Amino acid sequence: MATTADVPFEKPSTVRDDGGVYVEKGAHTSPSSADDNSILHEFSPEEQKKIIHRVDRRLVTTVGIMYCISLMDRTNLGATMIAGMAIDLKLVGMRYSIITLVFFASYVVFQFPSTVVIRYLGPRLHLSVITLLWGICTIGMGFSKTWDTLAALRVILGILEAGFFPGCVYLLSTWYVRYDMHKRYSFFYIIGCVASGCSGILAFGLMQMQGLRGYKGWRWIFIMEGIITCLVAVYGWFGLVGFPDDKRRNKGFLTDRERRFIVARVNADRGDADTEPFDIRKFLGAGLDLKIWGFAMLFGMTTTVTYAIAYFLPVILRRGMGFGIGASQCLVAPPYALAGLNMWLTGWLGDKYRLRGPIILFNALLCIIGLPLIGWVHNVGVRYFGVFLVTAGANANVPAIMTYQANNIRGHWKRAFCSATLVGFGGIGGIIGSLVFRDQDAPTYLPGLWAALASQLIVIAIVLMLTPVFIRRNRQAERGERRIEGGDANFRYTL
């Protein structure tokens, strides 16, 4: 995986711009310790590249594959809905929306405790065990006899998955410097997009098990995807690593010198790689920072669209555009392929040019262009093209907003709190996305499209409000008038 400048963060006038990955001897490394300063120069540029690439292969790939399964298990309802579940479980009226909604109720509530628990249990134990448990829960969905049983299992699924995504966001943010993050978050989320895109094709294949051992095809979708999840949980047990300052849990992955280099590198960038004792005041005190809620709102408005697409795109293709069952499941994949390409390209550009807000604005504009094409154009081909734009813009903004937030905060427990608020509001976006596309609005689904348009206008408004605030505070810090984040005189907000 390509890397951007891995140099310690300095004032904008002195940050290197040559795209190198090594720390130059004598570079500014405050506020790290003298020991940190020395180990930053013990490795050659080639050795530093190899260390970072090893972290990429082990950490980003593992959590990406696990997130792929997570996203598949929470969004497979659209495929099962048109595969016969709606008839067998009598999903009339708002029952389908209720089944999608209840997941997010428990998902949001259990975000905060999970981000604290992962620090004590360690990522390997916490993430792999909850993955195994929700895999078992997914298998159980395949045996549901009534719609309310399925809804109850979705509540349990929400509890178990609540700790996964914020845990991954938090874990990744502790290993990388700020201008390495967007590409890593993008790669992590691209794998999830592949899951969303290919889940329809997978579901269509699993439907062909119709009648095997007396079970309907939609039941086999749940059962087989649950079994895959359990296998991935076992893989996660062996593939996951600990936090970078945890010597015991990273034994066998990095040598102690290599691990200390990673810690020193992050400390040189933002000074928060070392563990802080848990302090409830520091954890909850982050809630007094208004920009944290701005980031959370950005994420919630973005996931309103991503979840609406994930849950309802097969239904819209089937009922709104007139495609057959097989085509409706398989035509989900191409828009996600474009989303993955856009995600990687904007991630690379964002890290190279150190841009966050403009990337988010670009992706929101893609959605604003695409949504009217879906709802107000009669030609099916043009409507389907609109799906490409909306899927690409909304999904690419997920890692963009994660990076925007991670770049502009400091401190372990503030980072943990922010991961919980970010993903918690993402769950609220999921609740909205679960409700906006209603059966009675077919085939145009105009109320849902209006809601999605409003969400993207809110995204644009928040970025336009945060940007001048960050510019003003950076200028004040340059003049020595204030320390803008966590008491570090060298910290600057990323615009």
TrEMBL record:
Domain Major facilitator superfamily (MFS) profile: start-end pairs: 59-475
Signal sequence region: none
Pfam families in alphabetical order: MFS_1
GO cellular component, as recorded: membrane
Location(s), subcellular: Membrane
One GO MF term: transmembrane transporter activity
Membrane topology (UniProt): Multi-pass membrane protein
Keywords of the record: Membrane, Transmembrane, Transmembrane helix, Transport
Segments crossing the lipid bilayer: 59-87, 93-113, 125-143, 155-175, 187-208, 220-243, 292-317, 323-345, 357-378, 384-404, 416-437, 449-471
Entries under InterPro entries matching the protein: MFS (IPR011701), MFS_dom (IPR020846), MFS_trans_sf (IPR036259)
UniProt name for this protein: MFS general substrate transporter
Originating species: Trichodelitschia bisporula
